[in-house]
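User: Predict the complex.
Assistant: Input components as received:
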Amino acid sequence: MRAIDFDQAADPAAAIRLIQQPHSKFIGGGTNLLDLMKGDVEQPLRLIDINHIGLDRIDELADGGLRIGALARNSDTANHPLVRTRYPLLSQALLSGASPQLRNMATIGGNLLQRTRCPYFMDTAFAMCNKRAPGSGCGAREGVNRMHAILGASSACIAVNPSDMNVALAALDAVVQVSGPKGERSIPIGDFHRLPGTMPQVDTILQPAELITAVDLPPPSFSRHAHYLKVRERNSYAFALVSAAAALDMDGAVVRQARIALGGVAHKPWRVPAAEALLIGQPLSEERSLQAARLLLDGAQAFQDNGFKIKLAERAVVRALREAGESA
Amino acid sequence: MPDQTSQPANEADVDTARRGFMQSALLVAGATQLPLAPANATPATSASPATPVVPARALTLNINGADHQLSLEPRVTLLDALREVLGLTGTKKGCDRGQCGACTVLVEGRRVNACLTLAIMHQGAKITTIEGIAQGEQLAPIQAAFIEHDAFQCGYCTPGQICSAVACIAEMKAGTASAVTPNVREQTIAFTDPEIRERMSGNLCRCGAYNNIVSAIQAVSANARA
């Protein structure tokens, strides 16, 4: 790993001041950043340690929601009693990602900023990657693309967001709280991650020197009927081929509210409000679920190796909805 | 220090000379501190910002109950500090990228991958490595169970497996959920084989001793619950 300078921030204001030094990056858990630095994909000159700035708490909000500090660890968040009982979808998604060791290190803020595992991005031996080296081309489009996007891709990039947590947060309508040199702002999760377009090097709408301080969850509506289904090459410790987060608010047998988010299919978690609307006011059925799944996957486009993902995602949605309907 | 310019007279002398050279090379490496690569190495790509020379910093790590004063560059991982500077080579370097779990140690009782964290981030924390698991000459229950259940073959992943298993058992006793827990809303979990397998999936074993690792953990878990 290249030489790096290192500062420890004592509070969020200090962190935002220190990050404005050239070529600086925040380090929380470091599980993704140090990995990428070892591979020379990330080349910061200075790390700002934000592990001691006091943003690791999980607190109830006045409106009945929950505020999860950006430095709360994946394992602590997944196992927090209020997350397990009120937002089981988030617990399930977090627990399906990485390993216990990594979950003990990884933070909620870092998870939001997790970078793609596209092999053309991860390995500097590949000359072409618009995300790593803008303008160099996309190695995956005509290359090995089994893990890649079927929705929202561009000619510049077909990478997918690798996070499980982000898919659950999308379904739960989380809000990302951010603080920066110009003050604070709240970003709905659906706006936080970008599609690649012509600038795949930019994953999120976070501005330079902005610090994620927390993730807010709205009051729980999906505590009883929620399911995160992750489909992968092996049963544990692997990234998703496809994942589906399903959350239902039921009035007896009738669906009052529905949320479906897909992971592993695009540069960001994929939601289609019209697909969710199809389920509302009806009893949950396989037929309706399949219609919703098809609407969610409308416009899906496969590449050479990932055509299987379209049908897989469709079936994952139907099964996740069924499991959500049955869970309690 | 042996004279490395003299010609060896026979094969036995060659071996002696090589051994002498290896020893002095290791001494030199130890004296320069980590990292062993020059700090001002030329960047690999022209677009990279020039890599600065970053001096080592004084820091204190608490390992297995003892404080150690070290002088390390910020880029030195906890794993390299343990192995290359402190000589605690029980913690193994497998993939060095957080994929195999061979480097698992406990920080404040929580299992982490020592390869994906910097030593400088752990000042003041209590770190336990495989060297600190036993009570003196008395093996910890999980160590005895690994022997009893034949839970290893080559042994390379074993220190990481054991550190991970210690935390795994504590996590299950504390009622933490896993990806195979049927209902995460319930605060107690069953000590089933699938639960143990899922919770140990961050530790790979190329010899495939998984069945016996699960048996060893089950045996200790049963005693811990009794």
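Residues 134-226 of chain B form a domain with the DNA polymerase; domain 1 fold (CATH 1.10.150.120).
Let me know if you want any component modeled separately.
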